[in-house]
Design a protein that fits this description.
Length: about 160
């Protein structure tokens, strides 16, 4: 069946309008929608979230707990895709507590960290995990008697800047 001239113009016009709507939606989405995967979020955003998480964890742990914040660990060369390298930044917090107070500290963190982080601790596996947002992960464990280690990690991201040590 062959379309008549008037009908063909209608179909062409509708297809053109649909294409314009799709392009406009894609441009708007790229500008205003939050990232849906870590590779869409640059290292600067990850580093800012990492710094906020370290500060929050330190304040939740309280002044009665000794905490050592180790320098940033920068790992270049991780892979975002097969053709796209990235960089990861980690920072470790080492808490010193009286012997036997390691698990209560991790349980305190679970109770007092922001609810949206979804912090959880599994004493059977000796594992702590939380998600600080912006694809920043917090992993931890009882490292020994009187010592708890938490590592805050940006994960592999596009490297847009250098990280000050």
């Amino acid at each position: 069946m062959r379309m008549t001239g008037k009908r063909r113009w209608w179909v062409t016009g509708l297809v053109a309008i649909w294409a314009v709507v799709l392009v406009a939606a894609a441009v708007w989405s790229a500008q205003y929608d939050p990232p849906t995967v870590r590779g869409q979020s640059d290292l600067t955003v990850g580093r800012e979230t990492l710094d906020e998480a370290v500060e929050t964890i330190g304040s939740v742990a309280g002044a009665q707990v000794a905490v050592e914040i180790e320098p940033y660990q920068l790992t270049a060369g991780c892979r975002l895709t097969l053709a796209r390298p990235g960089t990861e930044v980690d920072q470790t917090l080492v808490f010193t507590v009286p012997a036997g107070e390691e698990e209560p500290l991790l349980e305190q963190l679970v109770d007092e960290l922001p609810a949206q982080w979804g912090a959880r601790y599994n004493p059977n596996r000796n594992r702590f995990f939380a998600d600080a947002g912006d694809f920043v992960a917090i992993r931890g464990e009882v490292a020994g008697e009187g010592e708890v280690r938490l590592t805050v990690s940006t994960g592999c991201r596009p490297a847009d800047t250098t990280v000050d040590e």
